[in-house]
Predict the structure.
Amino acid sequence: MKSHIMKNLKKVSYVLLIVLVFGSCKTMKKAEIGGLIGAASGAVIGGIVGDQVDDTELGAVIGGMVGATVGGIIGNQMDKQAKKIEEEMPSVVVQRVEEDINIVFDEQSGVYFETNQHDLNTPSKETIHKLATVLKEYPNSNILIEGHTDNVGKEESNFLLSKYRAHSVKEYLVEQGVDEQRFTVRYYGESQPKYDNNTIEGKSKNRRVEVTISPNEELRRQAVAQIRE
């Protein structure tokens, strides 16, 4: 009986130590620290009462706490970046999807192409230049650029057109000083419409280039290092 109690007390001590380490993180709010303590103590105390906590389960609890804290730090950085993009480019659709930032460039957002052309015009360059400024300010991310078209014209031609347009955006960002190693480019032609290609407005919105910004491994390492401070 005594050894059983000591074993569970040891587990409680481990979890409380982890919580105290997390609590020292400068980025955490009091409510978040309280949540961690509540989650940790609830899990362990519940296990003591039910005699169901083993080392594997304890490891899962601690691992989940670490992951949640790291994710919170990363999310905070991505939120700041998304807000800055919205401030610099108010006409652009910016969405936060899990850890990522998704940006849609279409005719409504100031990035558009002449019919069957892939060269960037002056207004498009001005918009993309603003994005480049933010990307350089937040260097710890990967950038996926995807090209799409409407269904006007031949499917093969649209596929190539989406490729050239996506690469035009990527190449201009690189010209503005964004590290080329951060980029991945994909293109889909007319195969992934988001809107009705039977309407003028739908066609206009389907002629788009989407940019997805994702946290890279360096940002993850920095987040882990931050909780150890």
